[in-house]
Design goal:
With 332 residues, this protein is an alpha/beta fold. The protein is 30% helix and 28% strand. Helix 5 links the parallel strand 9 and strand 10.
Length: 332
């Protein structure tokens, strides 16, 4: 099978197209014949070995992970409730840039048979993260939500999900006029260019100085620290990503949260295992949203699997809006 493998960390060009054996699913796993796989900013960090999360402990050769959509080709021992031929999606940390990938069965979710493969890559990871961060924040009707990196693969879904959940005002940050125009089309009320030094003042002005009820932060670093100071009393900041890299969460004193503010983190794997029914309920809701048009999964580029380096270049330089997807050429 065709596989994109990495033998040394570095620029996008370190990814090579190679022929490798089709994996066999182990106990509790399923083998997916891949139609599409998403490319996120985290994968570009992994390729450079700057992904700060502790679960990333790679050994060469590396096959990067992502949101996979395809059909079940084989079942490992002990797997029940899934059949060969089922159309499914799964998020995996490893092995996704290939024509086949073996994943743990408990990560697999159903995908509608008639849903476009690129569109369906919202279902395994990016969409659940958007939904899960809002659930973690316990968003209430009429509250103000600040979404950082709102034009990205997760952020643009979070903007729309927040609107569907009843947010009163959505403040969206992005790094260019083109990206802010894109987010405006998705329903954001206030647009803030976070490349400007005065972006926090713009957020304060938008709330009349009252502060923000909910912040969804995938950046970290000083953006996170500044966000704590932008929270209204009883405001909640949910940290779920680390595009700032390195020291993603700066030291924050509990005294900075003393005004009844809270800072928490979201991890998809923990949500999936610890609150599984909530996770599954939100998956069903997300399928409805994508099907009825409540949420639009914007695909910036859908490229052949062999063009993984080009896809990484688009994401790493932040030249995209929405999601970049790799396609194997296999029809759903």
């Amino acid at each position: 099978m065709r596989t994109i493998r990495i033998h040394a960390f570095g620029a996008p060009e370190v990814m090579r197209v190679e022929e490798t054996p089709v994996p066999s699913p182990g106990p509790g796993q399923v083998l997916i014949a891949v139609e599409a796989v998403s490319v996120g900013f985290a994968q570009t960090q992994m390729r450079r070995d700057i992904f700060p999360a502790p679960m990333w402990k790679p050994t060469f050769p590396i096959v990067l992970g992502g949101d996979v959509v395809g059909t079940v080709a084989a079942l490992g021992e002990g797997v029940t409730g899934i059949r060969e031929g089922d159309r499914v999606g799964a998020f995996t940390l490893h092995g996704a840039y290939a024509e086949y990938v073996a994943v743990d069965a408990d990560t697999v979710l159903p995908v509608p048979a008639d849903m476009d493969a690129a569109q369906a890559t919202a279902l395994p990871g990016s969409g659940p993260i958007a939904m899960g961060t809002l659930a973690t924040a316990s968003l209430r009707q009429g509250e103000t939500v600040l979404v950082h990196a709102a034009s990205g693969g997760i952020g643009h879904l979070a903007v729309q999900a927040a609107r569907a959940a009843g947010a009163g005002r959505i403040i969206a940050t992005a790094g260019s006029a083109r990206k802010l125009d894109f987010v405006r089309e998705l329903g954001a009320d206030v647009l803030v260019d976070y490349s400007r030094d005065d972006w926090p003042d713009r957020v304060r002005e938008a709330t009349g100085g009252q502060g923000v009820d909910v912040i969804l932060d995938s950046v970290g670093g000083e953006v996170l620290r500044t966000g704590v100071g932008l929270l209204a009393p009883f405001g909640r900041l949910v940290f779920y990503g680390s595009s700032a890299g390195g020291r993603a969460v700066p030291g924050i004193s509990p005294m900075e949260l003393i005004g009844m503010r809270s800072l928490t983190c979201f991890a998809l794997g923990q949500w999936r295992t610890s609150r599984r029914q909530e996770y599954l309920d939100h998956h069903e809701k997300l399928v409805r949203y994508l099907t009825d048009g409540t949420v639009r999964h914007a695909i910036h580029s859908a490229l052949p699997l062999e063009e993984a380096a080009k896809a990484h270049g688009l994401v790493e330089t932040r030249a995209h809006t929405g999601r970049v997807v790799l396609l194997t050429g296999r029809a759903g």
